[in-house]
Structure formats: structure tokens, C-alpha cells
Amino acid sequence: CGVFGVIGVADAANFVALGLHALQHRGQEAGGIVVYDPDHGFNSARRFGYVRDNFTKADVMDTLPGELAIGHVRYSTAGSKGATAIRDVQPFFGEFSMGGAAIAHNGNLTNAAALRRELIERGSIFQSSSDSECIIHLMARSIQKTIPERIKDALRRVEGAFSVVAMTRTKLIGVRDPLGVRPLVLGKVGDHGYALSSETCGLDIIGAEFLREIEPGEMVVIEGGKVESFRPFSPAKSRFCIFEHVYFSRPDSILGGRSVYETRRQIGVELAREAPVEADLVCPVPDSGTPAAIGYAAESGIPFGLGITRNQYMGRTFIEPTEQIRNMGVRLKLNVNRALIKGKRVILVDDSVVRGTTSRKIKDMILDAGAAEVHFRIASPPTAWPCFYGVDTPERSKLLAATMSEDEMRDWIGVDSLKFISLDGLYRAAGEAGGRDDANPRYCDACFSGDYPVAPSDKIEEGFQM
Ligand code: 5GP
Ligand code: SF4
Ligand code: MG
């Protein structure tokens, strides 16, 4: 998901709409905005579909006055799937004795099922199926006197990944979980305003100046042109999601001081060193494989070419949550440039293999177009474990790499060769010259390594074995 908030600017909702538009790649199913204005109180709008189709029209935007606003774009990883339940669309809102508050959450809470059971037993009335709603109910049960204190209380009880943007009548609040699994950055807007955004590309679009990241375990409270910083949690070693660098974030964003584009290009360089092959063409699977393919071509000296064209009007296939739509999706989205591919030995570079559906269909398309050989190079290690922190990987049994060896995957996909970047190679590309420090890894890489930095307690209760 993507979260965004702004304070201290006229028509804050317009800024949030733009910010969410820049974060649309983080969630395409639905979006929502909450605003506060002293004359009109809290107002909100939640809609299915793209930001540009909903939060650009006067009939919606005119209902969202105020200089303080937060918003969310949704990608379902918990709760209902797809455009089925508007009640699952964030931000969530609650009235407390000291006033209203709204919150938007990116990430996944790993103890939400247990918390929900406990809260329902004690009288909470849940409105949605989302894990994030627990935060509002925990706030309601807190005995603290201010909303920021209640947010701290609530977030001390949740486990897992959370980058939260929240607001009261006067404050914009940002929090990152102690491991800093999901990103969140702070920017300056104009003379008096501030913005919080999942990624720096959300600041760029509104012309905000990037100030800094919210640090893992940090909470900022912004009011009256001042930013106050708190440390509500016990300190921990940060474990930022390495898959944000591989796939999830936009390549023009800066994460942890690193250009996402540069990391991706460097993954391609590492991949060319680790897994060279003789070929005539390096071709990205667009768009997610493109920077790595550029790096692979540069390092190998093999010409780069756009052998696959992507229909720009389709969203991210993987994010369409049902199997049927996903299956059609590959063809709806990608088509082969026959004139370029015919007769060539082609290296296809993609970011990841999850179920293998995409790779298999692309291989068919490339062979249909008359390629002489097809070699897959993948910019991440085999995805062998599900993510419980906010990326929607399927259960283990549906992950190709959880059930097959690399050679079996190659044969199942039906290509001449298949190679994944090593975990050490990925770490080198992400700025760790010595590779992965197994005693103290810098990133979360659980979907590749099975090393979960936060025990997924709800899933363990359901029978998941680490
Ligand atoms: P597959 O077809 O193997 O199940 O999915 C792999 C494709 O899904 C890749 O091309 C990748 O770009 C795309 N993808 C989109 N969203 C995600 C995600 O959240 N996780 C992973 N691993 N891949 C994703
Ligand atoms: Fe990111 Fe993978 Fe960790 Fe999930 S399991 S937070 S996708 S690195
Ligand atoms: Mg892709």
C-alpha cells in the first residue's frame, strides 16, 4: 500500500491526491482521503479504482476542504481481496473523547488475528476485515490523554510491519515500526507545510523538498510548523524490505539513501557476473525488469533491446488478486516485438518468479516470435517463502521455488537456462560490499531466505512452519 499526508497547505486534499497518484504502483485497488477543516470538521472519501479516476473530480474534491489531509492507496494483503468491500478501504477514522483521528497503514500486522479476537471479546465492534483496524480499537481502549499517546500505546501492542500516517484536528503524525520494514519519508512543502509519503516520488510530484526518512522506530508529530520526534519502542536493528529495492518501489525513489534505479541496475551487473551466457539480445520484461536488464547488458556487452512492449494502460498483473484475471493479465499487458526477436538468442530479465505463470507465458510468446534460444535471468533470489509484512506473495505451496529445484523450474518454465541472483549478489547491489552478513543482515529478505525478522504469530497459530 501507499500512504501520504500533508499539513499546512491550502486544499490539502489536492496535494494528497497527487501524492497518492505518484504512489499508485503501491496499490491500485482503491484509495481514500480524510481531511479536517475547522468549519467543516472531518470529511472523507473512499473509492475503488485509480486515484486519477476518483480524486480529480470536483464532486469529490469539493467535499474535502482543509489544510490537513491524509490518504491511502490499497493493495490487499489482508482482509477482503480486490474491489469487494469499501469498508476495507483506508484511512480508518475513530472518534475519541479528545476528538477524532484518522490513520492510514502500509504493511501487515502479524498478530492482528489474535488482537482482533481479544478486542471483539472485550466489546470492540469491527467495521472491516482489515488488520489495520485493530490500531483504531487499541487506541479506543487506551487510557492515555492525547491521541499521539494513544497511537503509541496501540502500536506498542501490534507486531509486524507498519508505516503509519495519522491525523488529528491539528496534527499530522508519522510512525515506522522498529524494524522499518516499509518506507516513509518526510518533506517540506512551501514555507509552513510538511508532507509524509511512502516514497520520495510522492514528494517530487508536489514539489516538496525531501528532508529525511522517518527512522525505524520513530514517531513524528507535526503541528504549527514544528516537527517533534519520539522513540516509542524498544530499539531494534533495522530490517528494511529488500524487495522494495527489487520491485515494489518506483525506480525514481530514494530509499535508505540509495537510488532504487541504481540498485536495480547494479543487480543486473551482478547477475551478468554470476550467470553469464552467450546470446544476441538482452531484453527486459517490462517494466519491473528494465533497470536490471540495462545493467546486465552493460556488464555483458550484449546489446539491449525492447523485445517486449507493455500496454501502458494495464496495471500490475500480480496485483489483480484473482487467479483468472492474473492468467489473462500477462497477455493483456505484454506483447512481443517479433521483428526484433526472430532468430535471436534472447536473455530475458525479470524481477522475480513467484508462481511462474508470468515467466511461462512470456517464454511462449518469445518462442512463438521465432527466438532461437530463451534464457531467463531473475533479479531476485528464488521466492521460496511467503511475505507476512505487506507484499502479497501466495502460500508456500503455490510458490514455484518452494516446490522445485532451479533445474526443475527451468524445465517447468521451458527455457534453455534459468538463473537467479544470489542473496549475496543482491546485497552487494543494495550497497553491502561484503554481501549478506548472516549474523546481522541489514535487510528483511524472508521471502528469499525464510529468515523472518518478526515471527508471524497468527500464521504460526494457523500451522505455518518456519
Ligand atoms: P508470477 O507470474 O511468477 O507469479 O509473478 C511474477 C511476476 O509478478 C513478476 O513479473 C513481477 O514483476 C510481478 N509482481 C508483481 N507484484 C509482485 C509482488 O508483490 N511480488 C512478487 N514477487 N512479484 C510481483
Ligand atoms: Fe520484503 Fe520479502 Fe521481507 Fe516481505 S518477506 S518484507 S517482501 S523482503
Ligand atoms: Mg513484472
Automatic annotation (TrEMBL):
It comes from the Bacteria. It catalyses: 5-phospho-beta-D-ribosylamine + L-glutamate + diphosphate = 5-phospho-alpha-D-ribose 1-diphosphate + L-glutamine + H2O. The keyword Iron-sulfur applies. Its EC number is 2.4.2.14. Transmembrane segments: none annotated. Binds 1 Mg(2+) ion per subunit. Binds 1 [4Fe-4S] cluster per subunit. Signal peptide: none annotated. Pfam families: GATase_7 (PF13537). The active site is at 1 (nucleophile). SUPFAM superfamilies: N-terminal nucleophile aminohydrolases (Ntn hydrolases) (SSF56235), PRTase-like (SSF53271). The keyword S-adenosyl-L-methionine does not apply. [4Fe-4S] cluster binds at residues 241, 387, 444, 447. Pathway: Purine metabolism; IMP biosynthesis via de novo pathway; N(1)-(5-phospho-D-ribosyl)glycinamide from 5-phospho-alpha-D-ribose 1-diphosphate: step 1/2. Catalyzes the formation of phosphoribosylamine from phosphoribosylpyrophosphate (PRPP) and glutamine. This is Amidophosphoribosyltransferase. It comes from Paragemmobacter amnigenus. The gene is purF.
